[in-house]
UniProtKB/TrEMBL annotation:
Catalyzed reaction equations: [(1->4)-alpha-D-glucosyl](n) + ADP-alpha-D-glucose = [(1->4)-alpha-D-glucosyl](n+1) + ADP + H(+)
Residues of the Glycosyl transferase family domain: 300-465
PANTHER family the record matches: ALPHA AMYLASE DOMAIN-CONTAINING PROTEIN, GRANULE-BOUND STARCH SYNTHASE 1, CHLOROPLASTIC/AMYLOPLASTIC
Pathway it works in: Glycan biosynthesis; glycogen biosynthesis
Keyword Transferase applies: yes
Listed EC numbers: 2.4.1.21
Domain Starch synthase catalytic: start-end pairs: 8-252
InterPro entries on file: Glyco_trans_1, GS/SS, Starch_synth_cat_dom
Keywords tagged on the record: Glycogen biosynthesis, Glycosyltransferase, Transferase
Name this polypeptide is given: Glycogen synthase
Keyword Glycosyltransferase in record: yes
Top-level taxonomy: Bacteria, Candidatus Yanofskyibacteriota
Domain of life: Bacteria
Length: 501
């Protein structure tokens, strides 16, 4: 196959913006297909049509009715329809053409994307429904991209049940891991030996009690032509016991086809020169304007307007994964002993919410908090804070550091996953780097790095150069899409070799 061939690509996922978006996966399913279309590829998306999908707003049209999706064994098939959002713009700025699998029982009556007791059945229906749709459709992709555990059965079905199917046998499959911590509808840490799924057994009927024990993530990894995850470092980390979530041996076996590609951010959406939420817009050549946003931010959070205070922001889910147990140990002494102001925006575990609320009472002139969801405040923080703190235990990719750097907030991060790939540690002698990076997961390393950043911040000429380097970095989806095109071609070539034997 020619490396320059324009590919037909079908992304299958549980969510995709702007139709049904819960988290980072929904953002990727909106941005990556659009960027691939800008490169000339025919990228399309398929998700379920949940009750919450606005059919009128998106002008969905029926493209297939009465699609019978086998359920396995002697059971009757489930009947589905398929609707479609057809992209109105050809320039890659509209969402990609998107198919919606309809089924009254499993999707149309459900307002939420996740959180149902029969989620395994709902995702299996999506996997097999997507394949049956492709069988019946005139449009046939060269490759299917299955995203996360919810679509892990697609590679499995393609390489077993549909292996000899004339409509499907030539289609390659890429399995994309966004977070290996979630592998099935159950917690894989607590599976008994009797219920362990090696991935070798045939997929039972979706109504068989054994079906509920399947590890969809394991099966996706086992049967895919190529596997990718959302950063090069995370791709290495998940082959180790520390990060592999009990799949490290299988991933090590398959590491020859395991790739890591950093996610991107939308550079039009995240642009400090055009962001109307900012009081003072700016670019890397006008950082003086940015300085004015710091005062606005301090006023907004009832902190003293002190240009010399080192203002650190946190925008995060407040959960163990994000490393806040370290801050619980050293946060008080940090605010006690240094001219540091901290602003925290996020929701999450009660213990962290309580911690920040109590810390705020103790240091009302040092700490500002907003412990509920807000779409605008992070932008104000990125556009006015000196630094953004991301001390994660693990971080498959992370978008916060990219958004912050785009707005000139210097990241202070732990060296893990996508943080390691996107932030270069500052080197005073060489005057290189665009952030501050620490390796050990302990509060001394965290504290030392924050103090190092604070001391460098006093040297404004050096700091401004660092901000400029951060703002000029390319984290666009167009960069990511070029990398994806390469591994999609590899998956197709690998699949052709397999079927040609």
């Amino acid at each position: 196959m020619s490396k320059n061939k324009n590919l037909k690509i079908l992304f299958v996922a549980s969510e995709a913006g702007p139709f049904a978006k819960v988290g980072g996966l929904g953002e990727v399913m909106f941005s990556l297909p659009r960027s691939l279309r800008r490169l000339g590829h025919d990228a399309r998306v398929m998700i379920p049509r949940y009750l919450s999908v606005d059919q009128e707003k998106f002008n969905l049209k029926t493209v297939m009715e009465g699609l019978k999706v086998p359920t396995g064994g002697e059971y009757e098939p489930l009947v589905c329809n398929v609707k479609m959002f057809d992209s109105v713009e050809a320039d890659g700025n509209s969402p990609a053409p998107t198919y919606f699998l309809e089924n009254e029982e499993y999707y149309e009556k459900r307002a939420n994307v996740y959180g149902y007791s029969d989620d395994s059945i709902r995702w299996a229906l999506l996997c097999r429904g997507a394949l049956e749709f492709v069988k019946a459709s005139e449009w046939k992709p060269d490759i299917i991209v299955a995203s996360d555990w919810q679509t892990g059965l697609i590679p499995n079905y393609l390489h077993t049940t549909y292996k000899e199917d004339p409509d499907l046998k030539n289609i390659a499959v890429l399995f994309s891991i966004h977070n290996i911590g979630f592998q099935a509808s159950f917690d894989h840490h607590f599976i008994t030996e009797m219920d362990y799924d090696s991935g070798q057994a045939e997929i039972p009927s979706i109504y068989d009690p054994k079906f509920l024990k399947l590890n969809f993530m394991r099966r996706g990894v086992m049967y895919a032509d190529v596997i990718n995850t959302v950063s090069p470092t995370y791709a290495q980390e998940i082959t180790t016991p520390e990060y592999g979530e009990m799949l490290q041996d299988l991933l090590s076996e398959r590491r020859g086809i395991l790739y890591g590609i950093l996610n991107g951010i939308d550079y039009e959406e995240w642009n400090p020169a055009t962001d109307d939420n900012l009081n003072f817009k700016f670019n890397h050549k006008a950082l003086g304007e940015r300085d004015k946003n710091k005062s606005v931010l301090q006023r907004k959070f009832n902190l003293p307007e002190d240009e010399h205070a080192f203002l650190i922001g946190i925008v995060s889910r407040l959960v163990d994964q994000k490393g806040f147990d370290m801050l619980m140990t050293c946060g008080d002494s940090l605010l006690n002993n240094f001219n540091i102001q901290l602003i925290v925006i996020g929701t999450g575990d009660g213990k962290y919410i309580t911690f920040f609320e109590e810390l705020r009472k103790k240091h009302p002139n040092k700490l500002g908090i907003h412990l509920s969801f807000d779409a605008i405040l992070p932008r104000l923080l990125y556009g006015g804070a000196d630094a953004i703190l991301i001390p994660s235990k693990y971080e498959p990719c992370g978008l916060t550091q990219m958004e912050a750097m785009r707005y000139g907030a210097v990241p202070i991060v732990r060296k893990t996953g996508g943080l390691a790939d996107s932030v270069q540690d500052f080197d005073l002698e060489k005057n290189t780097g665009d952030g501050f990076v620490f390796e050990n997961y302990d509060n001394y390393a965290l504290l030392g790095t924050i103090i190092r950043a604070m001391e460098i911040n006093k040297h404004k000429v050096i700091w401004k150069k660092m901000q400029e380097r951060a703002m000029k970095k390319d984290f666009s989806w167009d960069r990511s899409a070029g990398e994806y095109a390469k591994i999609l071609n590899r998956a197709i070539e690998s699949h052709i070799k397999k079927i040609e034997g």
